[in-house]
């Protein structure tokens, strides 16, 4: 591994509904602009109510993940954390299940993902429609 390090910050608008936002294209563009070779890509969301998942998108798995999270973390009044919209406390539990980061190997300047894998921001927080995602490459 060399000693190249570069980073950028994405500002994304996820809206007021639960969202699974595919970041794969953003990651590929970042790596190309960075002149990346082989190394590691770290994707980090610095929010207490969002996470990063590596999942299939476009065939329903992204919606299935949001539905599963809704089943596991109902938006009701059971949560001790009570500010914001009803059930917002569940959003603060989300990063315990969907980590706020992922590290992906990079080979030849491209994320070394499986055929159906995508890098996805998972955002269940309807109170914060704007998100920051930090992409960092070490190679």
Automatic annotation (TrEMBL):
Family from the record: Belongs to the UPF0047 family.
Name of the protein in question: YjbQ family protein
Q: Which organism is it from?
A: Glycomyces buryatensis
Which lineage ranks, top first, belong to the organism behind this chain?
A: Bacteria, Bacillati, Actinomycetota, Actinomycetes, Glycomycetales
């Amino acid at each position: 591994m060399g000693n190249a390090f570069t980073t950028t910050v994405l500002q994304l608008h996820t809206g007021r509904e639960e969202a699974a936002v595919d970041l794969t294209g953003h990651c590929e563009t970042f790596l190309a602009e960075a002149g990346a070779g082989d190394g590691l890509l770290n994707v980090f969301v610095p929010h207490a109510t969002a996470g990063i998942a590596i999942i299939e998108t476009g065939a329903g798995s992204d919606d299935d993940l949001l539905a599963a999270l809704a089943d596991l973390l109902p938006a009701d009044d059971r949560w001790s954390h009570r500010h914001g919209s009803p059930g917002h406390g569940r959003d603060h539990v989300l990063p315990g299940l969907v980590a706020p980061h992922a590290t992906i190997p990079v080979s030849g300047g491209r994320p070394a993902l499986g055929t159906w894998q995508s890098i996805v921001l998972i955002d269940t927080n309807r109170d914060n429609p704007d998100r920051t995602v930090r992409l960092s490459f070490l190679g």
